[in-house]
Amino acid sequence: MYNVYMLKERYLTQYILVDLKDKMVFLGGPRQVGKTTLCRNFVGTHFKNPAYFNWDNRADRKIIMAATWPGDAEILIFDEIHKHRQWKGLIKGEYDKHKETFKFIVTGSARLDLYRRGGDSLQGRYHYYRLHPFTLAEIEGMFDTPSVLGELLLDRDFHQDTLDTLDVFGGFPEPFTKQNIRQLRRWHNEKIERMFREDILDIEAIRDIGNMKLLSDVLSAKAGSRLSLNSIREDLEVSHRAVTHWMDILEAFYYHFRIYPYSSKKIRSLKKEPKLYLWDWSEVEEEAARFENLIASHLLKFVHFITDHEGYRAELFYLRDVDKREVDFLVTIDNRPWFAVEVKLNDTVLSPTLLYFRDRLSIPYIYQVVKKDKVDLLEKGGRVISAGRFLAGLI
Question: What is the pTM of this model?
Answer without folding.
Answer: 0.93
